[in-house]
Amino acid sequence: MCSDLLVALELCGKNAVSEFRKKMGPSQPSIAKIENPQTLRAIYGKNHSKNAVHGSNSKESATRELQFFFHYNSLLKSPAMFKYSSLCLIKPHILKEKKIGEILNCILAQGFEISSL
Questions:
Q1: Per the domain annotation, does 50 fall within a domain?
Q2: Which one from 48, 54, 71, 93 is the annotated catalytic residue?
Q3: By residue range, what is the domain housing residue 12?
Q4: How many structural domains compose the chain?
């Protein structure tokens, strides 16, 4: 469940699901800070529920999640649905802290393309 507004993105790139999962880091920010302090959750996460971002955990999940947010009946635009896509949800606390630009810069610097927003 979501406590407020969030931003949904379709990220495209080779091995998008696995590569974005690496960039996110462990779902628990306290663990992410120890295991991989350069990940999004280590840098921007607060706790398990306010862990900055969500990403698909498999190609099948990506297809299902992208269809949920971007299907043709949605008010949102249709996704490109590239073979190498992953969903990224930027969580409400990031928006409230006005750090969405920092997150987007990190995603783009990793080499992903954003095909749907």
A1: yes
A2: 54
A3: 7-116
A4: 1
